[in-house]
What does this fold into?
Amino acid sequence: MNRYRNLALAFTIVIVNPITQEAENSSAFPFFVTPDRWPGTYLEELFKIRNQQVVRWPIALLTRNFYIWIAPILTTGDSVLDVAHVRAVKESFSEWNKVRIPLLFVFTSDSSKADVKLQWVSNFEEKTIGKVLWKHNPKNGHMLKASIQIAIRRSDQTLLDTITMKAISLHEIGHMTGLEHTRQDRTIMQTPIKIAHLDPRDQVSAQILYSMPFSIARK
Ligand SMILES: [Zn+2]
It folds into this structure.
């Protein structure tokens, strides 16, 4: 019997049903009974990667807008970042906003005001097209800062299409909120990414992560 099992029963969770978008009370959801078994999510894998710690942005930040600064459109040699690519990235933030986790993404043109900056990269050397650099406090799980890098081209120099841009930005935003890779098929946090929208498993995983107190999964 692990220690946090009892704790999990002791707090109230308000979850937004991703289908109806209505708040549900926790008794309607079967997945709070044991934190080591979360049907419809990939939190079990997440907590394994995180050594059973809740890692996410702290509440103090969540009571206000969460500012995103997107670097200006970039021209590097022959590679021009199209307006449609920027739109795809903005759509990804809007799609995450609909999940109704307590992070409200708002764009800012003032980089000094930004909680998270998104930079364009011509291409990465390795076979990746997006990266999130983030830092958290290992003592309490609070995420402290993060930045996103998205490549315009793959490592073989082919230009990313806008659907791939949407998929990769949804995925990197997922990392930035605190999610990790999962083996669950056709979720946005699976690698390689097969979809360009959020699956209900992505939504519910993020919602529960943001409903859990930081102390809950600590060893
Ligand atoms: Zn990833």
Observations:
- The two ends are 12 Å apart (CA to CA).
- The pocket of zinc ion is lined by residues 171, 175, 181, 191 (CB under 6 Å).
- The CA atoms of residues 101 and 206 lie 7 Å apart.
